[in-house]
Amino acid sequence: MQEECLLTMRQIDKKFPGVHALNNVDFTLRKGEIHALMGENGAGKSTLIKVLTGVYPMDGGEIKLEGQRVLIHSPQDAQNAGISTVYQEITLCPNLTVAENMFIGRSGVVIRRKEYEKRADEILSRLGIPARSTQLLGKCSLAIQQMVAIARAVDMKCKVLILDEPTSSLDDKEVQMLFSLMRDLKSQGVGIIFVTHFLEQVYEVSDRITVLRNGELVGEYLTEELPQVQLVSRMIGKELEELSNLGETEEKQDEEKEVFYEAKNLSSSDALPFDFTIRKGEVNGFTGLLGSGRSESVRAIFGADKVTGGTVTIKDKRVKITRPVEAMRNGIGYLAEDRKRDGIIAELSVRENIILALQVMNGVFKPISRSESEAFADEYIKVLNIKTASRETPVGSLSGGNQQKVILARWLLTHPDYLILDEPTRGIDVGTKLEIQKLVLKLAEEGMSITFISSEVEEMLRTCSRLIVMRDRHIVGELTGNDLNQTQVMKTIAGGEA
Amino acid sequence: MENKRKKFLSGGLGQLTIPLIAIAILVIFNLIRDPGFFGIGISHNNDGNAVLSGNIITIINGASELAILAMGMTIVTAACGGQDISVGAAAAIAGSVFVKVLKSGSSISVGTVLLAFAFSCVVAMIFGAFNGSLVAIFRIQPMIATLILYTCGRSIAYWINGGATPTVDSSIIKAIGGFIPGIPVPTPVFIVLLMAILFKLLFRFTSLELFTQSVGINGAAARLNGINPTLIKLVSFIILGVCVSVSGCIGVSRLGLINHETLLLDIEMDAILAVAIGGNNLGGGKFRISGSIIGAYVIQMLTITLYAMKVPSTDVKAYKAIVIILLVVIGSPVVKARFSKLMARISENWKKATVKGAEE
């Protein structure tokens, strides 16, 4: 089985200050294949893609396209060579039409409007993309926009198409549309590099998998020959038993523990009144579809939105929490859903980010000394295994999973009694996900109360002993014990009877 | 050892590189042009005191008000991502209050001077809080919010002075604006030093620096970590108010009179420029006060150099603009990125060459 090699990357090497991002990595893409590039955050996937597309210069190695050695110094070079990338965030112009977006900024294409609209329609219909060339791009769904970006790449006679997390903002139906387009292109001989965090999708659509770990090549596998569990263990480099053991924590009798926090009729500008209780050492979770009000509820608990009513008791004492700082003084920590917008202070160092919440609790007149803060940072970098060049590295330059760990460290440093984690594992790699889940269970064992929110029900079933189900901004059910299974959760979310 | 050197070059100096290079270039330029430029002599002033004189003294002395305003402007810039353009007008108000209180008593003693300064300081802080609340509470763009006081500030000063330009004749005021008898260094220089130390202490004994930077970089995240961004922004304007009052009082003391039309006229733009030359991001976030102070001296040194070259005072601003364009472009992220790329390539080639040399 000697398929035609489309793209070969040999011994690619790339160093960043303090990090060896790619260490002699080989990658081969054949004609007409969908090749999944897998690895944890920080494994080197993005760096490899960026080297290939000319965003970063490589420190060593060579790239061959159809047997010819190519030098790629800029994204424009890559495009001219026939390598196109569609990024996770759509980089087209929403205020232009579909056709304009497909032809904008293309050198040498000076054609009349009617002509390119016709050509755009041809391509769209050939690829089976349900869009008209005269539509405004911004009026199309995200999936269609994604596909238009692909259509643009296809029309530029691309040989290699890179899809970087293309499915992360699509729903199931849209994902299927995208997959059929990918299969179509594959049959036309395009080589597709598919970067994603979703394992199921890899198995659904890809032919081959290349796994990277810590900047090194782990191996290249045929998808059908590599079971999912194997893939995960290759990605995180851990033994399989460890993975499967995580789920089997012994059932705890939460009913006997004392109540830590209790809210009655709590409401905020964004959350309808609800009741909520958490016991000492309990891990519970809010679940529901996006927009069901799960984040809004925990934000109300933390005082992140304007609290409009309700009574709150902590350890049997009435308290008033209307601002984050009051929640913090009452022993509550909150890791926000949107890490970039509400979590990290990107330009400040890892150290400064870690001490921030504790410093706020200490107050402005009791600064944490430099040496003390360095000790704190070093401690948590070690405990949480944060991968950073140094404690003074700006947190914005860390990978997503490590940024999340820094924020986690920030809250753990305040030694909260009750920690709210809103989507702590979103967009981070499998290995870190597991680390965070383990940490949650360990902290609960030590007596911390934790509320855990995740879009992945499976993850919540693994960590929570009680699930609060929300639909349309109301709590519609509470599941414990034997009811804690995927079917029951789905039924409750959907509103069906058991 | 090498590690330390690296740290010094990258983190330790970092944003100060450009302003320090600017000073170095100005020094070298003047050395070539006329070594006598740096001559420091001893002369006797009107009171018969022996004092230092020369261009260097003129530069360091003359930049005092600018340096002090630049310190405050840095904090406001960091917290709010915008600048206060009313500092000149506010300084005229602060100066007028200073003179008004001084003249209200029969004689001027150290006590009345301190009292007058306290009054002026409080008034400047109130105006700072006014600007600050427009920015922090009503979320008005800093430049628009402070445009109000910029427009009406000197009129308010006119009312306080009753339309006149009252003079103060006091040896204490002369000492503040000029020289303390027996000390050959101008007093404003010491005041700058004092303010710099106060800022240093402020950041040493409070966590205001961390909070201000957090608010400036990511206000939403800062709020969810319990910081009150509104308060931090307000405080930054109040701190700038103190700086405004100090520089207003220095300005008044230099001349021994308050002229609300000309006191620190157009200084706001220089203060903003000093912040920018100091390598601070005008969009807010991380900051270094020391950069802004050096920036202030760069501007003053440039002005004095041009005067020493006998450039007509009407043309000075045009020449100044040329140099400043160069400074700002060199300090821009685009040029910085290109430069560091170039340096990386050179050092790599150098490495290769030395390895080859060793092999041979």
Task: Describe, in plain words, how this protein is organized in 3D.
The complex is a heterodimer of chains A (498) and B (360). Chain A is an alpha/beta fold. Chain A has a 6-stranded mixed sheet, sandwiched between helices. Chain A has a 6-stranded mixed sheet with strand order 16-17-18-13-19-20, with helices on both faces. Chain A has 2 domains: 5-244, P-loop containing nucleotide triphosphate hydrolases (Rossmann fold); 254-494, P-loop containing nucleotide triphosphate hydrolases (Rossmann fold, 3-Layer(aba) Sandwich), CATH 3.40.50. Chain A contains 18 helices and 20 strands. Chain A is 36% helix and 25% strand. In chain A, helix 6 (172-187) links the parallel strand 7 and strand 8 (191-195). The termini of chain A are far apart. Chain B folds into 2 domains: 18-310, ABC transporter involved in vitamin B12 uptake, BtuC (Orthogonal Bundle); 319-353. Chain B is globular, with a radius of gyration of 22 Å. The two termini of chain B are 29 Å apart. Mean pLDDT of chain B is 90; it is low at 1-12.
Helix and strand topology:
The complex is a heterodimer of chains A (498) and B (360).
Chain A: E1 5-16, E2 19-30, E3 34-38, H1 45-52, E4 60-65, E5 68-70, H2 75-81, E6 83-86, H3 98-103, H4 113-127, H5 142-155, E7 160-164, H6 172-187, E8 191-195, H7 199-205, E9 208-213, E10 216-222, H8 228-236, H9 240-245, E11 259-268, E12 274-279, E13 283-287, H10 294-302, E14 307-314, E15 317-319, H11 324-329, E16 332-335, H12 339-343, H13 350-362, H14 370-383, H15 400-413, E17 418-422, H16 430-445, E18 449-453, H17 457-463, E19 466-471, E20 474-480, H18 486-494
Parallel strand pairs in A: 3-8, 3-9, 6-7, 7-8, 13-18, 13-19, 16-17, 17-18
Antiparallel strand pairs in A: 1-2, 1-4, 4-5, 9-10, 11-12, 11-14, 14-15, 19-20
Chain B: H1 2-13, H2 17-33, E1 41-44, E2 50-53, H3 55-62, H4 64-80, H5 87-104, H6 110-136, H7 142-160, H8 171-177, H9 187-205, H10 208-217, H11 219-224, H12 229-255, H13 267-277, H14 289-308, H15 313-330, H16 333-359
Antiparallel strand pairs in B: 1-2
